[in-house]
Amino acid sequence: MPLRGWRAAVVLSCAIFIPFGSASGATAQTSDDLGVIGQLQYQDEKGTKVFVEGAELSIDDVGGATTDAEGNFRIPVPGPGDYTITLDTSTLPAGIGLRDAERASLVAKVSVNGDQRVIFPLVVGGAVATATESDFSARRLGQLTLEGIKLGLYLAMAAIGLSLIFGTTGLVNFAHAELITWGTLMAYFFNVYGLVGVFGFLSGLPPPLGGGSEFVVATVLAMVMGAALGWLLNRVVFRTARDAGVSLLAQMVMTIGLSILLRYTFVYFFGSAYRSYSQYGAQRANVFLGLELTTRDAVAMLVSIVILVGVGIGLTLTRTGRAMRAVSDNRDLAESSGINVERVIAQVWMFGGALAALSGVFFGFDSVKWELGARILLLVFAAVTLGGLGTAFGALVGALIVGVAINWSTLVIDTELKNMTAMLVLILALLLRPQGILGKKQRIG
């Protein structure tokens, strides 16, 4: 691409943040329109849906509400932020309780988009059944395993790109966290605003040009933007550094600085308030064989599996995939055999950026945050190191192990400390098998 081409790409990438800062006030809800909402209901012995009327809920220092005849409630809040809403279980009908007795208080992350929905799962005699359940029960272990697999699948998409970038260039890329965040923000941008947020003359055209688009379309566009940012970072920063003979250690330091620069660029335009997609917010979980999973997460997990299987097929059977693996195994030999190494590296950056963006989209289901990537970067590195640096399949295996291990750890430690498990896994991997599960031993020195 000519020099003016990538300059135009830089301008567009910067301009696309404008709606987060200047235009958000035009489309977002005002503070008076914000609140925490929900509906209390349960199923009786015959499977009939029953709405709970007269139950009381409250938010400290903000206010409270009582459910109406259809079980609905709404508590207005003064602005975006985190609010703890508590259900007074003594006001529930006799014999009705929470499925999880410890979840009488929930944190609602209210964004500028509008009301935030919370869900209190109610069942007949639920609080008593949950309270007497053992911490090591089969149901809880199964639920934690399911949650761990979900986390592992999301991590795997980010870890594979990071591992391939290391394999083809030898670069440890700390800025990969911002590729994850970029995917979250771009999905939010196309889902809520559309390109009209940047180019006002597009008003009146169909989404995603003239307004927010369906979430599926926004996800695809976020992956395209992730690939574009990956190509841009390689072409402008790291290919220039390679051509200039900059050492890998110096390039690694550059990725740290680039990560900080991108992160605070995001918060400058996007703001520090947590937001949410206009679709697929809080959902009631479906119960199957005693395990709970929302439809949204089930679809996301299925998509992740399909994508990862496609990645495996692409790396093993396609010409481009074989070229990526060849460069990863031995760059000099691959170049001597006629492979265009720089083109392969550019493809790896685009490929890794798209996968990281999709991972960020799925992680953004809970809330869209400007520092999302930085929060999970340790988990991604733990997965890559455990599986074997530079191996895509190792990153997948490592991500699944890390995801399950983190969730299983909550059986014995507090939930807030569970990410510490990723550090322990990382340390043990380096001590017991430095090359990783699927990595190869190398002689150094």
- Oligomeric form: single chain
Number of strands: 13
Mean pLDDT: 84
Provide the domain count: 2
Structural class: alpha+beta
Computed CA radius of gyration, to the nearest angstrom = 24 Å
CATH architecture of the largest domain: Orthogonal Bundle
Task: Give the number of helices.
Answer: 14
Q: What is the approximate shape? A: globular
Q: Could you name the CATH topology of the largest domain?
A: ABC transporter involved in vitamin B12 uptake, BtuC
Residues in helix, % = 40-55%
Q: Notable features of this structure?
A:
single chain; 445 residues; alpha+beta; Immunoglobulin-like; ABC transporter involved in vitamin B12 uptake, BtuC; 2 domains; four-stranded antiparallel β-sheet; three-stranded mixed β-sheet; 13 strands; 54% helix
Could you walk me through the main structural features you see in this protein, from its secondary elements to its overall organization?
By secondary structure, the protein is α+β, with helices and mostly antiparallel strands. The chain has two domains: 34-133, Immunoglobulin-like (Sandwich); 139-432, ABC transporter involved in vitamin B12 uptake, BtuC (Orthogonal Bundle). It has 14 helices and 13 strands. The strands form five sheets. The protein has a four-stranded antiparallel β-sheet with strand order 5-4-7-9, with no helix packed on it. The chain has a three-stranded mixed β-sheet with strand order 6-1-10, with no helix packed on it. Strands 2-3 form a two-stranded antiparallel ribbon. Helix 1 (3-15) crosses helix 6. The longest helix has 32 residues, at 138-169. The chain is globular.
